Amino acid sequence: MIKYRYLGFDQNISEFVSRENATGNNLFICPNYSSLSELRYAFQQETSLQKVEFLTMEEFKLKLLQSATPFLKEEKRTLAFYASLTAEQKKYFHITNYFQSLSLARKFFTFFEEMAEELVTVPQVTSVLQKREMSLQWQAETFQQLLDIKDTYHAYINSRGFSDLIFRNPDSRAGSDWLSRFVRVIVVNQFYFTRLEKKLLPPEQTVIYLQLPAEIFDEKELSCKPEFSAAHLQQKLTEEFNNIVFSDEFSLKYHLFSGQYDPTRDAVIDLGLLQDHLQAYGVQSSTGSAFSIQFSATSIYSFYQALHILLAEIIMVDGRHLISLNSLLAVCSDDRFVSLFRAAPPEEEQAVWEAVLAWLYELADQSYKYLDLSLELTAIKPVPAVKALFTKLFAYLQKFSGIADFQGFQRVLQAENSISIRQLMTTAECRCSDVAEVFYRLLEDFWILAEINVIDDWQEILGSSAPEGFTLSKNLLHLFLDYAKAKSCHFYKEKTQENYLNITALHNTRNLAYENIIIVDTIEGNIPPVRQTPFLLTEIQRRELGLKTYADIVLREKYYFFRLVAQAKKVTFLSRQREEDATEISSFVEELHLQYPRIFSENENPVSYLLQGHCRNWLQAASPDLKDPEIPSDFYQLPFTAATDLKDSRMIISPSSVMTLIEQPFNYYFQNMLNLQKRETSLVLDYSPLQLGLLVHEVFALIWERIMDEYQGGKIHQDFNLTQNNFTELALDSYLMRNPELLLQKPHNHSELYFQKIIRGFIEDSLKKFIAECEISFTDQEIRILPEAKNQNENIALFDLDSVSLELRGRADLRIEVLPSGRKHIYDYKTGKFNKSLSRQYAAQLYMYHRLYYDLAQETGKWIFFVTDQQLQDFSRINITYQELEASLQSALTEIFKNGYTLGERAALYEDDELTRRSLVKQRRNN
After folding, report:
1. Which of 51, 75, 105, 351 has a Cα at 20 to 30 A from 370?
2. Has this prediction a pTM greater than 0.90?
């Protein structure tokens, strides 16, 4: 029978086990590698290692259940899984390519591995699924599909000389002879035993050491009883629990890294919050020795991920390779990526990077969505340094064109003139990590995929590249990135570094002990973890089958957590509590608080360090009283500086910006003088309002050009009814066909089809509607048509004020003059809908056009055609005069010259423009 040894939480289990078993030919089994290393170290202090062996539980099972054929693992098994699927199975699970199968593959292997571990048979699952009161029809159907896949997968890998863990035979005992040479099999504090593990442990040889009170361990089931709680930690080393509660993540991190802890004595247990922080700032080397991170957090992975983003967004249109501007914005926002392709000296690198982003945003402003890899079609040319950079980048991308196999892909990555791995790595990665070694092992292992007999036709799995195509190369890179995600690498303490934080994860602390520990982010959802929806089976069904349930997971996490805190003298919890997003302190911490109130203290830090500690250093002049800060009188304005804001003592405005200058000087300065706007790193792949507006203007210009050519100049007797259809359609076709830049400005997705089928027809109808309005007003009249003249702005001086000349500059979209009567008409096109709240702004713009072209006494019609509404609106009778506008302009300029560009009132309660700041202004004025 199995023997049990129970230890209190005040014992060091590794030292205890090594002292009791210093002699004898024993096999030691530990839960994981960190506990195994600790036990081996403790054992070395007592005796030699000649007659003993140390294994993790997983290694023990692999050694005992040996297979005649090698087991497939990681990407090898998922590739074989996809290759074995039948057409019907792919259709059932909605799978059309390899990468869509990965999620199902991982669930499939996890599910059947668990069945194999718990010795659950197919008839048992079927029996549970047949119980109508606890099952649904889809569960039985899906389970049958999974069984069929399991059979086809087994046949597929067996025909190629491989096996899988899910097909292990628990009765084979191929390694029994090896096990028999040990006197004792000593299991060191394994918390959870699967049915397979219970079956494989030899009862006469096995001794299990448990750091648990005997009364809460079920020796028959080899499991901890669910009654385990903080009350069972009476035999503990802990002298002090201290819970510090913060309001936000920043404050918690600020507190931890502000130097309040002794790095030589304190161990930091990270529940997930710090991992992302350390990876984001590249400071892994400042932690203790052997700090593990996923390879996906390295700079090498980031580069190849960026490369995949670019390759995946290259399309072929009309014989040209086009690359998505979205992908370029995404990768070029990272200065490190850009630095790999620029040849500027170090002092110019920042300027080149900013020039790169400025050029890309300028293209985005002009509705570009793609660039051609040859840079021939782009009308907006970059500066030489930026052109050289993109020429180099696009030449590098072209190397991946036409790759047909693994070997071609490998040749590109390892070409002499390619980017070296050392170039990709950060200083810390080069100096104190094994990132490079992990990468080369990963690369070598990845190429083995092409050599082993798992896949017959790689192009069937990953797609094929046509000549100069990128399909196979981007899919190979995608496969490589997925393969790399499972790998990890280590950072080591730098030899010259004296102080560092020893950071580790909770699951790496099993059987380890520390004097002082800081546990970071002890909140609900981290500890215990949030409940996950199980695959296929419900919690009730899993419980009936003996599979692990959420309650089992919570019990396991509670044991790991309580065992760890009971082994340390001083325990500090860094928690968060915030009602707004329902962030709560961990129930495990609350349980300790209730159980041990005499040694438990709690301190709240309700004020965010983001305001108190960090930003106060930036805002030295701000009042230290954060509850009622003293706002400077000029906080809501920008100063007027004649030297920079004026050119030769002239201020030039456009008709469309008049009301903004009058009502919102602050916004006018940003929009019209600084040309600042919010920048997005992701563009919507659709026709933008700017594009549609430009299209409408261009097509209207072509229509009037054709009309004037047809009737020999501007003075005509025009029957507009005859030109509605053919002139409109011809003008639209002409614009769409003769403009080569449109190839780079089109979405090249479903939006293009939607435009051709829906939007184009709508625009045609709208333009025809405008021509029909002209028919009503001008047919059989002698008129002169004066369409928008590109790059020919009218300019007129309005008035002088304080030695500053205010000038009006712009051009109307269309003017039509009726010759016999002398009446003038001014038209403006707008692609949006009519907004009644903007009526005065529309009218002001038209009145300014009137001032620009004609005498104010001249009777002039003022019209705006709203394309979306397909309506022509008359603004001639709006209750506004030019004299009022000029007076308002003079008043606004007087205020600007005196007090700068101030914030105006919000025009409407729900105006979508800096509501919070405007609300402050309004509140300040009311007070």
Report:
1. 351
2. no
Q: Tell me the pLDDT tens digit for each residue of 415-425.
A: 766 788 888 88
pLDDT < 50 regions, the chain: 284-285, 288-289, 622-623, 626, 713-716, 909-910, 914-927
CA distances from 237 to 12, 243, 267 (A): 10, 18, 16
Cβ-based neighbour number of residue 802 at 10 Å: 10
Q: Are 455 and 398 in contact (CB under 8 A)?
A: no
Distance CA 754, CA 686 (A): 10
Could you give the CA distance from residue 897 to residue 110 in angstroms, rounded to a whole number?
A: 72
How far is residue 21's CA from residue 5's CA, in Å, rounded to a whole number? Answer: 12
Torsion over CA: 843, 849, 854, 860 (sign): negative
Q: Residue 804: what are its φ and ψ, rounded to 5°?
A: -110, 130
DSSP, res 672: I
Q: Taking the CA of residue 854 as centre, how many other CA atoms within 13 Å lie in the half-sphere pointing to its CB?
A: 21
What are the residue ranges of helices labelled H in 652-800? 658-663, 665-668, 689-710, 724-738, 742-745, 750-754, 760-778
Q: What angle do CA 487, 492, 493 make, to 5 degrees?
A: 160
Distances (CA, A) of 281 to 136, 298, 528: 48, 11, 28
pLDDT value of position 847: 93
Token pair for residue 153? 């997968």
Distance separating alpha carbons of residues 403 and 882, to the nearest angstrom: 67
The residue with tokens 């390759």 is 311
Report the distance separating Cα 703 and Cα 709, nearest Å: 10
Query: In sequence order, which residues have a C-beta less than 8 Å from that of residue 656 and are 6 or more positions away?
Result: 810, 845
Collapse the DSSP code of 585 into the 3-class scheme (helix H, G, I; strand E, B; otherwise coil) and give the result: strand
Q: Which two tokens stand for residue 555?
A: 């019990």
CB 801 within 8 A of CB 890: yes
For residues 24 and 51, the answer to whether their CB atoms sit within 8 Å is: yes
Residue 212 CA to residue 8 CA, distance in Å, equals 6
Helix (H, G, I), strand (E, B) or coil at 862: strand
As a whole number of angstroms, the distance between CA 815 and CA 704 comes to 11
SS3 726: helix
Buried b (16+ CB within 10 A) or exposed e, 10-46: ebbbbbbbbeebeeeebbbbbbeebbbebbbebbeee
Question: Which of 101, 107, 69 has its CA nearest to residue 85?
Answer: 101
Pick from 617, 638, 506: nearest CA to 565: 506
Best CA proximity match to 640, nearest among 917, 336, 893? 893
Predicted pLDDT at 687: 75
Torsion of CA 643, 645, 650, 652, to 10 degrees: 170
* Per-residue exposure over 612-644, b if at least 16 CB sit within 10 Å of its own CB, e if not: eeeeeeeeeeeeeeeeeeeeeeeebbbebeeee
Report the pLDDT value the prediction gives residue 905, as an integer from 0 to 100: 72
Alpha carbon distance 803, 894 (integer Å): 12
Break the chain down into helix, strand, coil percent, rounded to 5. Answer: 50, 15, 35
Which secondary-structure segment (H or E) carries 825? strand 824-830
Q: Following DSSP, what letter does each residue of 144-176 receive, concatenated?
A: HHHHHHHHHHHHHHHHTT-B-GGG--TT--TTH
**pLDDT for 924:** 45
Q: Which residues in 538-647 belong to E strands, given as ranges?
A: 570-576, 600-605, 637-638
CA–CA dist 83, 85 (Å, integer): 6
Cα 907 to Cα 826: distance, rounded to the nearest angstrom: 27
The CA distances from residue 393 to 343, 410, 906, in Å, are 11, 19, 47
**Dist CA 105 CA 102 (whole Å):** 5
Which tokens in the block code for residue 569? 């003298």
Res 461: pLDDT: 81
